[in-house]
Amino acid sequence: MKATAISLFSIAWVSTALALPSQDLTKRSSVKGFDISHYQPNVDFTSAYAAGLRFVMIKATESTDYISPSFSDQYTGATNAGFIRGGYHFARPGSSSGSAQADYFLKNGGGWSNDSITLPGMLDLEVSDCDGLSTSDMVAWIRSFVDTYHSATERYPILYFSPSWWTQCTGDSEVFSEECPLDVASWGSEVGSIPGGWSTQTIWQYADSNPYGGDSDEFNGDEASLKKLASG
Ligand SMILES: *[C@@H]1O[C@H](CO)[C@@H](O)[C@H](O)[C@H]1NC(C)=O
């Protein structure tokens, strides 16, 4: 452990001397967070914050007929404990249009405010069998959600998916990588390869558990960059 720390320091020092300092140093900092849903109705946000977690994504809605019964309490609890937080929407593309689901999400907790503690809303893309949509219909559905969210908030939503879901359900479309921040689900010790044209992830969901509930996430940058993501 000690040896690793020393060698990383040396590499960082060499990189600084080689004139690509900010890029290399940014990659070395990260902020831990987690994501939760109605399956975790009693999260101890104060302890989670004390343990070093700084952001949390909270499930707000699903399709156009489900609001998480825990969302409001979790959002308030996270806010009071000092978290940077945001809502997410579980996509059901086979049930209704992307714009209808974005509107529902916006009305029920998924909106964005420029208050420096609210992350742009996140679209959770993990429904099995692509909910019956073809890859082109799925890309059009996501486009409709993304554009509706952006018109309402001036922010592009974060897209969450696993590499296999994106490849299967969008045919590895690259049309969102310039706009939407990526939260990639890739459980293990490395992010691995990222589909869809993103050069890097914004958030990495690296484990499907967390001591404080839900899943474990890591923001790819330091706390100042996380705050920047919150304020656009
Ligand atoms: C949010 O507010 C900050 C500070 O006032 C400003 O710099 C930024 O452009 C705003 N973001 C958006 C997307 O309006």
UniProtKB/TrEMBL annotation:
The keyword Cell membrane does not apply. GO terms for biological process: carbohydrate catabolic process; cell wall macromolecule catabolic process; defense response to bacterium; killing of cells of another organism; peptidoglycan catabolic process. One of its GO terms (cellular component) is extracellular region. InterPro entries: GH, Glyco_hydro_25, Glyco_hydro_fam25_subgr. Residues 1-19 form the signal peptide. GO terms for molecular function: lysozyme activity. The keyword Protease does not apply. PANTHER family: LYSOZYME (PTHR34135:SF2). It catalyses: Hydrolysis of (1->4)-beta-linkages between N-acetylmuramic acid and N-acetyl-D-glucosamine residues in a peptidoglycan and between N-acetyl-D-glucosamine residues in chitodextrins. PROSITE patterns: GLYCOSYL_HYDROL_F25_2. SMART domains: Glyco_25 (SM00641). It is an enzyme of class 3 (hydrolase). This enzyme has both lysozyme (acetylmuramidase) and diacetylmuramidase activities. This is N,O-diacetylmuramidase. Belongs to the glycosyl hydrolase 25 family. Keywords: Antimicrobial, Bacteriolytic enzyme, Disulfide bond, Glycosidase, Hydrolase, Secreted, Signal. Its EC number is 3.2.1.17. It is found in: Secreted.
